[in-house]
Amino acid sequence: MKEMTATVNAVELINQNVYQIRLQADDLNFEAGQYLMVVLPTGEQVPYSIGSAPLTLPEVTLYILVSDAESLAHKVVEYLQSNKIINIKAPGGDCHLKNGVMASNPEHILLVAGGTGFAQIKSLYSELVEQNFSGKVSFYWGLRTAEDVFAQSWLEEAHKYTPFTLDVVVNEQSDQWHGRTGWLYEAVLADHPDLSHSVAYISGSVGMVYGTLDQLEAKGLSADRCFSDVFAYAPRPEKPLL
């Protein structure tokens, strides 16, 4: 990863606890699906998926969830709010479209995101649109409540692109939500009961990624055709041989 500076163009709270950050990084090149590190004055390096596609360079977008005032994410947002020029490292990660998967001419690319895992999957989706990918692309985004949904204007534009599908799935039912509800993997499998000819990118928490992978493998998805940054920083122990 290369060290560089970036200009903070905007820090905007876009729902109750998610900030959208717009940075200008003139020296940055990356592949859709990669991440950057925000380098704090303390030396801490905090990774965030780039939520925009390379076509928007030199501007990039991040989505940062701040769960509480004591969190590292809160420290990052305060740093971004109080500094116009920041230090970053980039790019990182091999969960992207040039990792060899496209050479296999996949007929179906499944994109699955939980929470702010949306950032990475949004970047991949936008790049596939830009490339005029001719296969099927199915994007599923899972959130706990209707209040957790963000990036509404982007979702509205993405829904207009009819060659691909995009579904937002909210776990908890409410009067404010009229879309799909339930568990994210249930929505995926209801639409795609046979995943033996699919490749998948999954982004979210460690538990969400491995829990989803287990469900998708049971319906034919091959583990070596599934990609996630989680596999690099939180590898799961090998399953015991029976």
From TrEMBL:
InterPro entries membership: FAD-bd_FR_type, FNR_nucleotide-bd, MRET, OxRdtase_FAD/NAD-bd, Riboflavin_synthase-like_b-brl
GO molecular function terms noted in the UniProt entry: oxidoreductase activity
Family from the record: Belongs to the Fre/LuxG FAD/NAD(P) flavoprotein oxidoreductase family.
Domain of life of the native organism: Bacteria
Keyword NADP in record: no
Residue stretches making up the FAD-binding FR-type domain: 1-98
UniProt key word Ion transport: no
PANTHER family: NAD(P)H-FLAVIN REDUCTASE (PTHR47354:SF7), NADH OXIDOREDUCTASE HCR (PTHR47354)
SUPFAM superfamilies from the UniProt entry: Ferredoxin reductase-like, C-terminal NADP-linked domain, Riboflavin synthase domain-like
Protein name in the entry: NAD(P)H-flavin reductase
Key words, A-Z: Luminescence, Oxidoreductase
A biological-process GO annotation: bioluminescence
